[in-house]
Amino acid sequence: MASLNTFGAILTHAINLETALRDYYQRIGKADRAKAADKRRQTMERIRRETVLEITLEPIDGLDEADYVLDLSDSSEAAQQAVEESAARFYRDVAPKINVRQAQRALERAGKEHQELANS
Amino acid sequence: MPEKLKNYIGGEWVESATDKYVPVYNPATCEVLAECPESTAEDVDKAVRAAAEAFPEWRSTPVLSRAQYMHHFKNLIEERFEDLARCIVEENGKTLDEARGEVRRGIESVDFAMGVPFLMRNDGVEDLSSGIDESTVRQPVGVFAAITPFNFPMMVPLWFLPTAITCGNTYIMKPSPQTPISMKLTYELLDELDLPEGVVNLVHGGIAAADAILKHPGIAGISFVGSSPVAKKVYEVGTAHGKRVQAQGGAKNYIAVMPDADIESSVRNILGAAYGCAGQRCLAAAVAVGVGDAYDKLRDELVKQVQNLRVGYGLDETTQMGTVISTQAKERIERLIQQGVDEGAAVVVDGRNLTVEGYENGTFVGPTILENVTPDMTVAREEIFGPVLALIKANSFEEAVDLINGSSYGNAASIFTSSGKYAREFKYHVRAGNIGVNIGVAAPSASFPFGGQKDSFFGDLHGQGSDSIEFFTDRKIVIERWF
């Protein structure tokens, strides 16, 4: 598993995470959740493209993809809750590491949405 | 077979008159990506003729229509954003984040050009004498050209071209033969705009093409970015041939770190400034001056954080520092490090002889820190253009400012401090065109001129911002009376 040690690595992981969630929810017939995941994917792609600021790029440490692996093989309610908990934790951990406020806000918002789904 | 690049002249992709081509390498993999023509004076002349022919129609195209092309251009860049960023990584060797940042800064310049209808407005006064009014209008000048460097193969060309053409001029771009592919992609997007033929032209090549541009009587002005010796030559030859010239040269950028600075945060930013783009930025931090007690803390924190920097191939998103541009650049950088050692500096972190698994032939130089550096040493005076940071100790703020002002260059200087007083004194006294306060890379956004003083700039009007409107237009004064 790779280290999430750059702005791009974190945003790309977020994009991949939301893509995987979109496909997962489509597969188990939860269209609303799939649509929301796809919207977050688009937001993360836009954030990666629009908020990268070359003069403030800094190394990031202490994050690893291995800590945020989603188990998408199980479609039970409990499994969905675990997936959402894991996604929320990812966004909660990475947001403070990003030094561009707009990007941080988008990550925080995504984390909040995942936490709400985990709690529902 | 690698693609043989073509020039873009008069709205068409055309082969150069030359039979000489140079390989364009991916500096990490050593793969040949393309063959770049050594275009000739004949090629340049064709481009100038096409641009001159297009000028009368283009200058009379309403400015709002010219600006609309920039809206479309921006949309096309956004659509191809990732392709462009990846292309920059492949031909330049920087990281994907850095390449994305470069494309974004290029787009920022296109955004700026959309404001030209407002920025070209001028003023007037009625009744300077009885019934006599006086006003100024800004008009485009004619054919402009740019000679641009390898280190920002997309951003630097876009400092100039969008504003120049939106002001009503026509344009010729000559990108670096080491990194011509980003401009090829950019011109494919320009081609999609259906601009009138000849408004934008692309001529690949090296010294012969550059020399022809400098001396061609049909070119009104030249923008250049590169090393200082070449910038000086471009300025001298260009102006001797009657052109307006803005020539941005090299740098030796100093960073002063005060005892009251937040060392951990400062060093995180200084790492980006010193080692971002593998130090191949005209705004890269080259010398860090630790003032008083700050020196030891700065040194220790730098050494601690730099060990974690991951050097590798830029397309791997976990890479934090990529390659330098070529084998020759690597050899020159490593030779200058050794020269520093020979002159008495100590290598605290040594980036020489670095190999990266899977990319054993790549032109990698690891992050390097030299200490015990004195201002007279070559590593403190000459631009290295690589990932090398020299450490100097100063006993006071005033001594740090004197050190910075002693440099022959004046592109940028930064201070890291929590004191408003020191920040203010620094801004006031330091002779550099771009000043950073707790920012290691003091890169102006597109709406501000890119400063540069002393041997870092030759000319009067800088690139970007309001200076670029001045550079790309002539002011005409109209005094009128009606009987």
Overview of the molecule:
The complex is a heterodimer of chains A (120) and B (483). Chain A is an all-alpha fold and 120 residues long. In chain A, helix 1 runs antiparallel to helix 2 and helix 2 (31-50) packs antiparallel against helix 4. Chain A has one domain. The radius of gyration of chain A is 14 Å and the shape is globular. Helices cover 65% and strands 0% of the residues of chain A. Chain B has 483 residues and is an alpha/beta fold. In chain B, helix 2 (63-79) runs antiparallel to helix 4 (96-114) and helix 3 (81-92) runs antiparallel to helix 7. In chain B, helix 15 (420-429) links the parallel strand 19 and strand 20 (434-437). Chain B has 16 helices and 23 strands. In chain B, the strands form 6 sheets. A 7-stranded mixed β-sheet of chain B has the order 15-16-17-14-13-19-20, with helices on both faces. Chain B has a 6-stranded mixed β-sheet with strand order 10-9-8-11-12-22, with helices on both faces. The chains are: A mainly alpha (120), B alpha/beta (483). Chains A and B meet through helix 1 and helix 2 of A and helix 4 and helix 10 of B.
List the helices and strands and how they pair.
The complex is a heterodimer of chains A (120) and B (483).
Chain A: H1 7-27, H2 31-50, H3 77-94, H4 101-119
Helix pairs in contact in A: 1-2, 2-4, 3-4
Chain B: E1 3-4, E2 7-9, E3 12-14, E4 21-25, E5 32-37, H1 41-59, H2 63-79, H3 81-92, H4 96-114, H5 116-119, E6 124-129, E7 132-140, E8 143-147, H6 155-166, E9 170-174, H7 181-192, E10 200-202, H8 207-215, E11 221-225, H9 228-240, E12 244-248, E13 253-257, H10 263-275, E14 285-291, H11 294-306, H12 327-342, E15 346-349, E16 368-371, H13 378-381, E17 388-394, H14 397-405, E18 409-410, E19 412-416, H15 420-429, E20 434-437, E21 453-454, E22 457-458, H16 465-471, E23 473-481
Parallel strand pairs in B: 1-5, 8-9, 8-11, 9-10, 11-12, 13-14, 13-19, 14-17, 16-17, 19-20
Antiparallel strand pairs in B: 2-3, 4-5, 6-7, 7-23, 12-22, 15-16, 18-21
